[in-house]
Design goal:
The chain is an alpha/beta fold and 291 residues long. Helix content is 48%, strand content 14%. It has one domain (12-278): Alpha-Beta Complex (2-enoyl-CoA Hydratase, Chain A, domain 1). The chain has a six-stranded mixed sheet. A two-stranded parallel ribbon has the order 3-5.
Length: 291
């Protein structure tokens, strides 16, 4: 008998309760875990609190051997189109501390944990329009709801677009299309995202989770070891992208914040940059949605 015992892994009953303020979790008998991000039961409103909770959740889910597949999505008709009005008060209070602790550290953990800390297949569901889409785009498979729109608002709020979304855009879109999307805030429709290879399928919103479960059922037809080792193959491009670009990108973005010495995450500022998406325009400087 060994002189020591294994440390107990996380238990679903415990962490589903611990994270309930940020994520609704449901796991079936096959180990398929559905995680729905929310704020007060509705679409996610960005804050430093849910920014940190995401990485903590991903690491915890990855450490539970009873999880076999992760389905990750948002709540309601929008993926993430708003900011908690007080969600960045910590940024205003101490920008230097925030830039490292809540942005550089937490942000890198979020993206890295999705790619490196989960040994199980992942299916991301873009349930509606929203920014910070990298969390579902960098899943192994990604489905988008009809009417979903993908965009990066950072440049238009005075922030360097380099905190993970740029990784997803450059990997999936290529140099020129990614540059246009990052510099103009281009609103990429679900149909265009499918054409360009950003997502695998576009389905009606009410079919997102059922379709993800159908795909999960197919993935489960192969042995556990095969499933888990296959993730290491399909994620190799993401792992290389993270190693090459993630830390440096975050560092450049945080230098920009500190050099300006001002916050850019105010609710009003973010709201003004997402109205063009709701209005069906391609970007915020082109008033013609048909152009």
């Amino acid at each position: 008998m060994s002189l020591q015992s294994f440390v107990d892994p996380p238990r679903f009953e415990e962490y589903s309760e611990r994270f309930k303020e940020f994520f609704r979790m449901e796991r079936d008998e096959d180990g398929v875990l559905l995680v729905e991000a929310h704020t007060l039961g509705g679409p996610v409103q960005l804050s430093v609190q849910n920014h940190r909770a995401l990485g903590q959740m991903l690491k915890t889910v990855g450490a539970d051997p009873d999880n076999e597949i992760l389905i990750l999505t948002g709540t309601g008709e929008e993926f993430m189109m708003g900011s908690d009005p007080e969600g960045f008060a910590l940024e205003d209070a101490d920008l230097e501390y925030w830039a490292y602790e809540y942005a550089y550290k937490d942000g890198r953990i979020n993206v890295s944990a999705l790619v490196n800390d989960l040994e199980i297949p992942t299916i991301g569901l873009m349930n509606g329009p929203g920014f910070h889409s990298e969390i579902v785009l960098m899943c192994d498979l990604t489905l988008a709801a009809e009417g979903a729109t993908i965009f990066d608002l950072h440049y238009d709020i005075g922030s360097v677009p380099a905190d993970g979304i740029h990784n997803a855009f450059q990997e999936l879109l290529g140099v020129k299309r990614a540059a246009y999307a990052l510099l103009t805030g281009e609103a990429i429709t679900a149909e265009k995202a499918l054409e360009w290879g950003m997502v695998n399928e576009v389905v009606p919103r009410d079919r997102l989770v059922p379709r993800a479960r159908e795909i999960a059922a197919h993935i489960l037809t192969q042995p556990r070891t095969v499933r888990r080792l296959t993730t290491q193959i399909v994620r190799r491009p993401w792992k290389q992208r993270v190693v090459d670009d993630l830390d440096g990108g975050f560092g450049i973005q945080m230098f920009g914040h500190l050099a300006k010495k001002r916050s850019v995450h105010g609710e009003a500022h973010i709201r003004s940059t997402v109205e063009y998406v709701r209005e069906g325009r391609r970007n915020n400087f082109d008033p013609d949605p048909e152009r």
